[in-house]
Amino acid sequence: xxxxxAIKTRRSIRSFKKKTVPxxxxxxxxxxxxxxxxxxxxxxxxxxxxxxxxxKKFTQEMVKEFLKNNKKLKLERLNYMKNYRSxxxxxxxxxxxxxxxxxxxxxxxxxxxxxxxxxNYSFFDAPIGLIFSIEKDLGWMSWLDYGMFxxxxxxxxxxxxxxxxxxxxxxxxxxxxxxxxxxxKNFTVHCGMAIGYENEKDTVNNLRTERESIKNFCKFYN
Length: 222
Known about the structure:
With about 220 residues, the protein is an alpha+beta fold. The protein has a single domain (about 5-210), classed as NADH Oxidase (3-Layer(aba) Sandwich), CATH 3.40.109. About 40% of the residues lie in helices and about 15% in strands. The chain is built from seven helices and four strands, in the order H-H-E-H-H-H-E-H-E-H-E. Helix 2 (about 25-35) packs across helix 6. The radius of gyration is 18 Å and the shape is globular. The mean pLDDT is about 95.
């Protein structure tokens, strides 16, 4: 698959087939993704690959953690922004309600919302779960480098017939995840990613997100 097709067909998938993904393929994907650029070649990424029994045990603990403590869980650092403003607020609301409409979750149904959010911590039942950790004292440029690495993983997955879902949600349960993964005290969980084969029969995967026209975010200087 060429890179343009990979970009056009990449989507965040939230329901996967039970079909096993060869670990040899995951190794190849990560090797290719590691060709991402990084400032002074610092390569700040650290990947924890979960599958089989390890995946099952880890996700059981993490779902339990989320359901038990969701009201008091706090991020280690700000993910996006404290108070959303226009145009970010409208974009966020639009994709949220588009997703909930597909799932039949009506406004105010906190039980169903919580149940769906908890699926993040089982990697949406994907056969492969990746957890990304980073050293806490690395600066914001290293976090940008990390984003390019994660994007590369998503795109290379398409060449293997796989889909993915990058997940910021893992940052909310970093304390438990750090403990289960036995991370060094200077490391913390950054985010995660589900990888597998798309379940085309599940309506949740019918979500299509809108993109702004280039004229709305780009200026050309001659």
